[in-house]
Amino acid sequence: METEGLFTPDTRDAARNRYAELRPVADVVVREVARAMDLSSEAFDRHVTETVVETAQDALFASMLEVTVGTREEFETVCGKRDAELVQTGSENVDRVVWHAPPFADRIVATTFQDAREAAVGTLRRQAFGQLYRDILADPGDPDSDDRQEGE
């Protein structure tokens, strides 16, 4: 098994904090891309919206998520040690799996692949963001924000 990426939040609050830390980075990235495109100030004001910056923030967060890459057998061993719902995409007839399973979540998000590891990792990160983080990050008033484990 191999792990790649920069972080796996241990709690919902840790995810929110990391996401918030990325806001200034997203602002800079969007501003610099707009400059590189030679946008006029009017075009900048028209096109660089809150939604654009939030999308950059989402993409940054997702792209940094730590994922584990391993064989199907290794993945099944990990799943067997955890009481969590499995959300898996891809074919069951391939040998490799990439997954993300933060400790606070009641789900493991995974996708299978044979040869296209980089594509699978990118796909999995986007799926993990949508499946595990989008709702948490969109609603800071989430009743589970005290980081209780599911079912407690």
Decide which structural class fits the backbone. alpha+beta
Percent of residues in beta strands? Answer: 15-25%
End-to-end C-alpha gap: 31 Å
Number of strands: 5
Q: What is the averaged pLDDT score?
A: 91
The dominant shape is elongated
- The poorly predicted ranges are 145-152
Radius of gyration: 18 Å
Please write the string of helix (H) and strand (E) elements. Answer: EHHHHEHEEEH
Biggest sheet details: 5 strands, mixed
> Helix segment count?
6
Largest sheet: spatial strand order: 1-2-4-5-3
**Proportion of residues in helical segments:** 40-55%
Labels describing this entry:
152 residues, alpha+beta, 6 helices, 5 strands, 51% helix, 16% strand, disordered C terminus
Report what the structure shows:
The chain has a five-stranded mixed β-sheet, with helices on both faces. It has helices spanning 12-21, 23-36, 41-47, 50-64, 72-80, 117-138, and strands spanning 2-4, 67-71, 85-89, 96-100, 107-113. The protein has 152 residues and is α+β, with helices and mostly antiparallel strands. Strand 4 (96-100) and strand 5 (107-113) form a beta hairpin. It contains six helices and five strands; from the N terminus they run E-H-H-H-H-E-H-E-E-E-H. The two termini are 31 Å apart.
